[in-house]
Amino acid sequence: MKTEKVRNFLPLAGLLIVFIAFAVLSGGRNLTSSNLQSIFNQSFFIMLAGICATFVYAHGGIDLSIGGLEGICMLIAVVSMRNIGFVPALILVILTGIVSGILIGGISVYGNIPVFITGLSLQYIYRGILKVATSKALITVPNQYTWLDSWGVKAVVLVAAAAVVGYLFKYTKIGRYEKAIGGNATATTLCGVNAKKYSVLAYVILGIGVGIAGLFAMVRAGGVNPQAGAAYEMDVLIAVVLGGMPLTGGAAARVRCGIIGALLIVVIENGFVLLGADPNLVDGIKGIIFIATVFVTIARRKGQVVN
Amino acid sequence: MSKKMKKLMAVLLCFAMLFSVTSVAQAKEDTADVKQVSIGFIGWGYTDTLGAAYKEYFDYIAEEFGMNVTLVAGTTQEEHISLAEDLIEAGVDGILAYQVTSPMMKLCDEAGVYLMQFGSPITDEDIQANLDGSDYWLGTSSVDDYKSGQNMVEALYEDGCRNMVVLGVAAGNPCHDLRWNGIMDKAAEYDDMTVIGEYRGGTAAAQEYSDQVQNFVAMYPEMDSIAMTGASSGNLDAVLSALDTVGMTGTVKLATLDVQEGTDTYLEEGSLLFIGGGQHPEVIFLAILMADIIRGSLDMGGEEVSLVGQFINIVGTDGYEEFKKYIMDDFPYYIEELKAVSTSFNPDTSYQELYDLWNSYSLDDVETRHAK
Amino acid sequence: MEKEVILKCTKMCKSFGPTKALVDVDLVVNRGEIRGLIGENGSGKSTISSIVAGVLPYDSGNIEFLGKPHKPADMLEAQQAGISMVVQEAGTIQNLTVMANIFVGKEERFSRGLFLDKKAMKKEAQQILDEIGASHIRADDSIMRYNFEDRKLVEIARALYEKPELLIVDETTTALPHKGREVLYRLMKKQAKENRAVLFISHDMDELMDNCNAITVLRDGRLIATLNEDEMSIPKMRSLMIGREISDEYYRTDLDGSFGEEVVLKAEHLSAGEILEDFSFELHRGEILGIGGLSDCGMHDLGKAVYGAVKLLTGKVIYKDGTEIKSPAAAVSKKMGYVSKNRDIESLILSSSITSNVALPSLNKLQKGVYLSAKDEEALTNEQIKEMSIKCENGAQTVDNLSGGNKQKVVFGKWIGNKAEILILDCPTRGIDIGTKVAMYKLMYRLKQEGRSIIMISEEIPELIGMSDRIIVIRDGKLSGILERSDTLNEHSVIECML
């Protein structure tokens, strides 16, 4: 259907417009291969979580705890890598992600608490743990792991994540179920779908993505402080919304939303530094560009960002 | 408005915004007769007392010193790395950051960009080892945050305070962490002084502190003093108003840092006992040094720079007038004075002279140089 | 009585994109009349009433109301001119009080500077509620204390407060239980007696026959005929609506209430919700089991209980192989299906495509290993689109734009596509045009003949009598009687069990 195609194209159009605008204004500075690498490196974390969050947003959920979760995973990763090794670190962060997903999904869905609130509560708990653990000093990464920071490794991970999530979303019933739950949870349950189980599954998948992101974030940042991972959940939320994901989920959810939105955010932030913008103005202008972009992508959707 | 129009408007809006941004940020023309140096500065923000002071000072000297300074801000280390990346892409020659890490060093080293840390010295051995391995690591500058913490407690103790509450921002900000440790360690030295309560807030929002103070007053009637690691972002007013609300003005004494407007009233009232600040020239000295090294007019011979500076402390009403006159409402070091210790402008000077100029910073010193 | 014209529409035309909703409609309504308006879905009856009430603008034509030109910009203007409308869906605002709802949009009448004169509001609101016979509703209560029926009464109070010259009732009675309908009939008669007028839109031909002085029939956007009192009859209406003769029997024609011996589903001592108590029955192979009663007797809870969709306080539901049905997932795995009375809220995902809706229960089966092909989904859906004659462009169309009848076909298609053996239907023909109803009844009979089993919960007694092999009547949550299909079975025997 023609309107569908146009609608799907718009977030991408927004991204291209902003990118080209910055290219023109910075005299092509943002097109150099090293800058493109920087953009990729910076957006990697949001893209990874954005991709893995597709199921959560598709069913109309939201995870506000992933900032704290990323911090905790960074902590677990660095402690493991200092003392045990890389592979155990990887396994542990994935496990942490799974446990976190079960916690937020389980408590919200089976305990009937709005997931918004469960997420915030978990966030506080994670931050508290992180504060205590890092209050003495910075915990740093041993040098031998810097190979993880290369964009090549990250690209492989990202492509793999996109492939797995994309496949599950498009070619298995999981994706259909999540969208159905987002569209109408009651009707979906009455069709015999165990909506609760699939909701929790969505959070588990997101948790795994965040765990892996945390491992890479830790290597990139070089250490963990109590603020690690701060605002991550908002970055991911803004990214998927900019990428065209409807907040209440449903049929219009797409895996690509996280990818496009993440690039958009990073291109803008990168662009501002390249232009040497007055830092006090940057936030304000960022906000305006975001609104303008949403405006452009939402005009077609007739307010479907919030169903 | 039709949908097409809306879309067009949005795009035009974006462009308009971006143009306005660049017009504000245009690189200055090569007015000074030295080679232009481009420096990236990674701070935590420019709306608090210290950050705003940094910005003002840079605006003052940048053009004269042939420097193009790009200010950016971030709180987490991931943000810092991203900012460093972007600054390098923007083509800076050197970066000043308040929290240097090994990956940041690696980035700079690979890109041939110089790196220095301000605010505190390097404390982590692993990081230091990595820094030593790079030719692009130039050194640090710091003001003695730890000592300031101690000074605060000392002043309170000498005024007769024995039961103290400590307020600080969340752990992770190196300056505040050092101050916190200084406070705690000094308090421990006095046998008859106790820390009866502490709060290490997440965001240090004024409201948070205000609430905490009222809680503490309610819980500990014997409380007689508060040591706070930093007072900007409205915290000074918030805490002192909170004390006023519960009728504790004058009974509970406050010691903190970040001198600002209104300090004189508080000092006169007696609720504020000790306040320190004025340490903002630190980053200016560091930047000038970095520019000198980049231009090649200063050769450190591989040795690390290690600038140490002072806070200016005000106890009681003593010295506030002068502080306001010379440090808040004026620049403690004028351009000519700074050029005199910069090898790019005065080839006869040296690193030691710059070091001494900054290290001898005090109220008397500024008064002597700028007496009006 | 002198026939004084109150509303005159001349050559009304209205299109929605390519769809012509009204074509040259000339409608004249007189004072003292209760004019019925009937037509299939898509005939234009709701469109014309919406236009007159100020909800929609018209493309061309002329309206004269009370002798003056009538072109309201919105409902409020139409109200001020003297036309009020009550609709089928919920029209009250959740978090307000009853009186706030009644005076919504007109608060300035009670404003004194910054404040509202709540006392005056309450008095006037209570007055109008008493007048319409709804004194059990307190004006200062929160609207949320009241159920759907009472809220509808509040809406009616709102409409009648302005003493409208023309009251439009747009399918309101469809969703109202018995008591609410009686109130509405009484008010309509009062309106007519006071020499005002009522435009009454409904699918229910019996109630139109009972209440109207004249009935206008629309079809495909055109006014076909207006039948006056002598000419009105149900067969006549039907044939005008469809455009061809239809035999009087559109339920089953046979009187054979037999069914298989095998018990496919057994309910034992069920208690659920607030009313249902110790309820037991058996469903057999090839049986259409009707369930009837007063609207709040617990029959709707029963439907959900048997499907595993509500928590059972006591008892269990057992499938023929001995498994207990404890959840909808279990029910679906045993080839059961449920058609809810709240179609839009519980049976469909409105923002999704027809394909997504139809294939949903069957995805489990369609997925082979870890691969689910969209083609398989589409194939299953296309089959159902054909079987059920769903009017649409293709399976990718979203459901929310379909008419009520087509939506219901999608719901049925979903279960037939999953090869359901046991169907639980709750008010399956509610809010559906006659053409689709006929198709539904034919379908149900065919399923019975194929050996499948149907539980049909309905508030329409003729439907129960017409279609069921057995009728179980519920009274106050308990089983009150079981009636068997026969030609002597009539409404009275059923009602007797209900009361």
From TrEMBL, chain A:
Membrane topology: Multi-pass membrane protein
Gene Ontology cellular component annotations, sorted alphabetically: plasma membrane
Keywords: Cell inner membrane, Cell membrane, Membrane, Transmembrane, Transmembrane helix, Transport
Locations listed in the record: Cell membrane
Signal peptide (residue range): none
Cross-referenced Pfam families: BPD_transp_2
Domain of life of the organism encoding this protein: Bacteria
Alphabetized InterPro entries for the sequence: ABC_transp_permease
GO terms assigned for molecular function: transmembrane transporter activity
Transmembrane segments: 6-27, 39-58, 89-113, 151-169, 200-218, 230-248, 255-275, 281-299
Subunit structure: The complex is composed of two ATP-binding proteins (LsrA), two transmembrane proteins (LsrC and LsrD) and a solute-binding protein (LsrB).
Annotated function: Part of the ABC transporter complex LsrABCD involved in autoinducer 2 (AI-2) import. Probably responsible for the translocation of the substrate across the membrane.
Protein name: Autoinducer 2 import system permease protein LsrC
TrEMBL record, chain B:
Transmembrane segments: none
This protein's record includes keyword Transport: yes
Signal peptide: 1-27
Keywords: Signal, Sugar transport, Transport
GO-annotated cellular components: outer membrane-bounded periplasmic space
GO molecular function terms listed in the Swiss-Prot or TrEMBL record: carbohydrate binding
Domain Periplasmic binding protein: 39-292
InterPro entries documented for this protein: Bact_Solute-Bind_Prot2, Peripla_BP_I, SBP_2_dom
Domain of life: Bacteria
Presence of keyword 4Fe-4S: no
Subcellular location: Cell envelope
Ranges in a coiled coil: none
Family as reported in the entry's similarity comment: Belongs to the bacterial solute-binding protein 2 family.
Protein name: ABC-type sugar transport system substrate-binding protein
TrEMBL record, chain C:
Alphabetical list of InterPro entries matching this protein: AAA+_ATPase, ABC_carbohydrate_import_ATPase, ABC_transporter-like_ATP-bd, ABC_transporter-like_CS, P-loop_NTPase
Record key words, sorted: ATP-binding, Cell membrane, Membrane, Nucleotide-binding, Repeat, Sugar transport, Translocase, Transport
Superkingdom of this protein's organism: Bacteria
GO-annotated molecular function: ATP binding; ATP hydrolysis activity
Domain ABC transporter: from-to ranges: 7-245, 259-499
A Pfam family recorded for this sequence: ABC_tran
Alphabetical list of SUPFAM superfamilies matching this protein: P-loop containing nucleoside triphosphate hydrolases (SSF52540)
PANTHER family reported in the protein's UniProt record: CARBOHYDRATE TRANSPORT ATP-BINDING PROTEIN MG119-RELATED, D-ALLOSE IMPORT ATP-BINDING PROTEIN ALSA-RELATED
The protein, known as: Ribose transport system ATP-binding protein
